[in-house]
Amino acid sequence: MRRKGMENMRLGDKLIQLRRERGYSQEQLANMLDVSRQSVSKWEADQSIPEINKLIMLSDIFGVAVDDLIRDDIELLPLDKRQAMSTGEHNVNHANGNYPNRIYGYGFYEYKSKTKVFGIPLVHVKTGYGIQVARGIIAIGNISIGVVSIGGVSVGGICFGGVGLGLLAIAGLALGGIALGGAAIGIFALGAMALGMYSVGAMALASEIAAGGLAYGRTAIGSIAKGDNALNLADVVREGQIRNFVLEHHPKIWKPLLKLIEFMGEISRLS
Which CATH number covers residue 85? Predict the structure, then answer.
């Protein structure tokens, strides 16, 4: 992949070589890195040096080691010779930079649709090692930000991920208007541990109604229930008792929410 030459080969020269080998313009490379074209131009002219996270991304894009990029005493071989010497490396070359999807070194993948809504890509997928942020109406990435967002950390209107923050969040740790997860925090929260205005879970804490195994709220329904209005599930002896109890204290409750609380109460009582 490399050789030590008699003359120094600077970072700017290497970036020009690598970019031209792949057929990328400065603007196309800048878009991959989420920087301005002027930044790429300054790097190639050796007027500035990329930040470490950008060096790592350049390493992924071109399939060369960061060490090979930054050391002046290492000269890059031409692409065909590097490929001939390389073994087991994933290195897909899109000679035409107009392709909307890019697959390059070490598991990095990005797709950005040409269709945009209010200047935002309709679909943006960006995955790989390190911090990869996808931004789009539909966003999928290590970190995703979008109307519909799927990722390890997801932020948006509808979110799915390890950590989700949105109007509707479904995640291991969910925070949102409606939150469903292992740990859920929201106006309505459903999870093993739920905290919100209305909470349903193994452990439920709520300012209004809490239902679950262990329930704390103004109105609490559970195997252990603590609140101003408390219904211990061991005391439920007839069908409709949970429903009537909730309606007695919250006559204007949203009917689907009432049905869910009644259903979860019955499940907890019978388990």
Answer: 1.10.260.40
